[in-house]
Design goal:
Elements (H helix, E strand, L loop, with lengths): L1 E4 L2 H11 L3 E5 L3 E6 L2 E7 L15 E4 L3 H13 L3 E9 L7 E7 L5 E7 L18
């Protein structure tokens, strides 16, 4: 995943110090980040992405298999003073797609969602269900 960043120093602080990602290669135009075992690349841009009034349509993030890992990251984000776009909560309670979620906003306005599904099969399964996201 590649994403726009308007300030690489602030981006590095958010992802490395804030979220605990490992920094890979970097230049004066880009950063490579180990995002929970996945590669993210922040590319320097002069204009931030257009702000969104809600969480849709543009965001990216991580699904945690273990709820304790999800809770640990939520606690870390709070302790680091990261900007929550949506506080930790449970969505779709009692439904097959029930999950814990929170959204963060990085220094360039990119939105990140972190989830843990109660039922693992809801991540890529439950194809007969049509509900996706909030309405």
């Amino acid at each position: 995943m590649a994403f726009p960043a308007t300030d690489l120093d602030a981006t590095r602080r958010f992802y490395v110090e804030g979220l605990g990602c490992r920094l890979g290669r970097s230049s004066n135009r880009a950063l490579i980040l180990d995002f929970f075992g996945h590669q993210l690349v922040a590319h320097l841009v002069s204009e931030p992405p257009p702000p969104q009034s809600g969480i849709y349509p543009r965001h990216f993030g991580m699904v945690f298999a273990n709820e304790a890992d999800w809770q640990s990251l939520a606690a870390r984000a709070e302790a680091q003073g990261l900007r929550f776009r949506q506080l930790p909560r449970t969505r779709f309670v009692g439904e097959p797609t029930e999950h814990r979620t929170f959204f963060l906003e990085d220094p360039s306005g990119n939105l990140l969602e972190f989830k843990h599904y109660t039922r693992a099969e809801a991540v890529f399964g439950c194809a007969d269900l049509t509900g996706i996201g909030d309405t």
